[in-house]
Amino acid sequence: MSNLINKTQYIEFLDCRKNSWLKIHKPELIDLYELSDFELNLLRQGNDVEEWARLLFPNGLFITPTEDNAVELSKKYIAQKTPVIFQPTSVYDVFLARHDILEYDQPSGKWNLYEVKSTSSVKENSKEIDHIEDASFQVVILKETGIELNKIFIICLNKEYIRSGNINSSQLFQIDDVTAEVNAREESTRQKMQEAKAALLQDDETALECLCIYKGRSAQCTTFKHSYPHVPEYSVHDIYMIGKSKKKLAALVDQEVFALENIPEEFELSPHQSIQVKAHKQAVSITNAAAIRAELASLIYPLYFFDYETYPSAIPLFDGFSPYQQVPFQFSLHIVTSVDSEPEHREYLYRGDKDPSLEVIAKLKEFIGPVGSIIAWHKSFERDRTKELAQHYPEHTAFLEDLCNRLYDLEDIFKKRYFVHPDFKGKTSIKKVLPVLVPELSYNDLDIREGGLASQKWFEMCFSSISQNEKDKIASDLKKYCKMDTYAMYAIWKYLMTSFTPVRIVEAKPLGVFETFGQMAENLPR
Fold it and tell me: Containing H/E element for 382?
């Protein structure tokens, strides 16, 4: 069946035709589109959601999708009018679809199709492709193979569901009847399927164009570099919010202006965009010293540099949680009591298999005093997690609300464009700012370098059957990663204080004089 177009390839075709073709015909480009650890974790959670959704249909018959005779088995059980079939496979022309659930509807003598999605809505706002097109693709194939359909449903997670005791599958999911929407789209889907057949099964790569050249960087396909090797690594596609300014981006692309230094001086850009381009063209940092001083002066000592690590489980792990609600399992603090004091480190990592919330709250109370600014990077994340802790345990609301009120976002200095450096490349994440301002510090020596992997590894440590040594290794890696996040904030704050305030830093030790993070961590105050 390798020469058939499956649902994933069809959906990818609708997003970028050439990207879909390359994945089929040029497997040697696997490094460009191989799934990350974080994406693999999402895939695993998606499989979990499907398993739970099957509980809505007791005594369903499961067909292993990888079996060579999956199509024949599917035909057999459909002909027998088996009440519920999980993962039946259908083939029509050059198209293949594996259906999550087929249910025989006795009164109508037809079949109901259920597609299970690990999202909390029928349409994903963040994507151009919605689940209706997915279902429509399958309906076309089923109809062409002689299956009469009664209703089409999409099963999504119910975002209003709050776990209390054992998971209640009937409450965990919402089932939406999308029959009318799918039927209205069927003819256009048939046309697009034929376009996909003509495009994806031909051999000429040059016959296809990647239109991601007209998209901002975050929306581009995974094989963009292959299709446009002449576009610089840092290009007009990285200009702040350029993906939302489609006419601006198109104007630049149509003039073949890709390097920022080639943007005409008269080209209209927003203030944030202009300052980014100006910094790049002049190869200088652009700062608003007075605004930076005002931001720093607003902080109240002691300063608590603060970061959570969390796990968003599709199927709630604990009572009181909803699908994908973040579970804080770890935090790190670096605390300074005055402008010239050395940071003290405090941390907490939960290693059990129960709800860590109460222990997290207890440790926050132990480490954070009643006075002082709590400094985060992108503070809305820490604020929202703290508010959710208060919702779960209202007896601690006063303390947790006070933490929220004292939060300060260090990223604001960069988001407000008070400090723009050409090497930030238009971004304000801590992993973009840190190597520019404090190049001696790096995440590169860590085994865990980003939050998605931290989340996955915590789940593995607490809920899988790995050895104790492996669990200890994960715990050590998690602590190093979270510690680095808050030390990085401290280091950036120290740089700003040294560079933009008139206060002389007494006996300030140079940052990042160690060759590796391990050496730096060993020398951090505890």
Answer: helix 379-392
Helix axes of 397-405 and 357-367: crossing angle, nearest 10 degrees = 60
Q: Is the pLDDT of residue 93 over 60?
A: yes
Q: Are 221 and 16 in contact (CB under 8 A)?
A: yes
Q: Please enumerate, as own/partner, the contacts of 21-30 that have beta carbons within 8 Å and a separation of 24 or more.
A: 21/199, 21/200, 21/205, 21/208, 22/205, 22/223, 22/226, 22/227, 23/223, 24/200, 25/203, 25/205, 26/205, 26/226, 29/223, 29/226
Owning domain of residue 242 = 232-281
Distance CA 89, CA 447 (A): 40
Domain match, 35 and 150 both:
yes
Q: Are 305 and 416 within one domain?
A: yes
Query: Strand, coil or helix: what is 423?
Result: helix
DSSP output for 46-71: HHHHHHHHHTTSTTPEE--TT-TTHH
56 with 155: CB under 8 angstroms?
yes
Q: What would the two tokens of residue 404 be?
A: 């929220």
Q: Record the tokens describing residue 201, joined without a space.
A: 């099964």
Q: Does 294 lie in the same domain as 277?
A: no
Q: Are residues 261 and 345 in the same domain?
A: no
Distances (CA, A) of 170 to 106, 121, 382: 22, 16, 32
What CATH number does the domain containing 94 carry? Answer: 3.90.320
Asked whether residue 384 is domain-assigned, the answer is yes
Report pTM. 0.89
Q: What is the pLDDT of residues 311-334, one digit of tens each?
A: 999 999 999 999 999 999 999 999
Answer with the one of 257, 281, 305 that is the final residue of a domain.
281
Q: Please report how many Cα atoms fall inside a 13 Å half-sphere around the Cα of residue 2, on the Cβ side.
A: 4
The pair of structure tokens assigned to 377 is: 């990077």
Q: Which of 313, 258, 315, 335 is nearest to 458 (CA)?
A: 313
| Number of domains within the chain | 3
492: CB partners within 8 A, 6+ apart: 410, 430, 433, 434, 437, 438
Structure confidence at residue 367 as a pLDDT band (50, 70, 90): very high
